[in-house]
Amino acid sequence: ISFTHALPMRLQAFGYALRWSTRKYFGFQESNGLHPLMDEHQHAFERFQGAAHRCTYDSQKPVVLRWEGNQPILNPRFVDFATYYEFGVVAVRHAPNRKPRVERSFWELVRSFFNGRTFRDLDDLKAQLAQWMDTIADLRPIKRMKRRTRMELFAQEQPLLRPLPSHPYDTARVRYLLCDIAG
Asked: For labeling, which of 29, 41, 127, 147 is most exposed (least CB within 10 Å)?
């Protein structure tokens, strides 16, 4: 992303789309590690005042460590995060059609949000993104639902989301090192 008052940055986009209402949350982070992923999930959960029952992921390293045959080996720290918020983790690989709403939502982000906009810096980008989600993306009519908006559909979907715990997950940004003491 090029900025008018800051150096250009390479950012990772995070997208979270609900299945029924297709209401979306987007966020940007400077890296795509485990902690930025958990942070963006928490922002999405706060926006929706709840969490979906299941979330689908591609083979990104913070979620899937590796595959053994057709079985994903999940990152234990991410499984702990998912367990805290009580949502199931569904991993897919080489199958973008298994998560079409979030894949298509990035097209909407590029076509609707980024077209014709300039950003002073990262804070301005995030502020404009929040304003766009609230005033444009959420209020856009959905053709398949007879022109009802995402917010109208979200009003029906929100009570079905998992309630959030009273305290956010502590991501404990601590590095554990194993040391061997030679006797």
From this structure: 147
CB-based contacts of 167: which residues, under 8 Å, 6+ apart? Answer: none
Bridge partner residues of 141 (DSSP): 149
**Residue-wise over 139-148: b if at least 16 C-beta within 10 A, else e?**
eeeeeeeeee
Half-sphere exposure of 4 (CA within 13 A, CB side): 6
User: Given the structure tokens 């983790």, which residue do they identify?
Assistant: 89
pLDDT attached to residue 121:
96
Nearest CA-CA partner of 72 in 52, 93, 53: 93
| pLDDT of res. 175 | 61
Low-confidence stretches of the chain (pLDDT < 70) are 96, 172-177, 179, 183
12, 28 contact by CB (below 8 A): yes
Residue 152: CA count within 13 A, CB half-sphere: 9
Rounded to a whole number, what is the distance in angstroms from the first to the last CA of the chain?
53
The angle, 0 to 180 degrees and rounded to 10, between the axes of the packed helices 34-48 and 76-85 is: 10
pLDDT at residue 37, rounded to an integer: 95
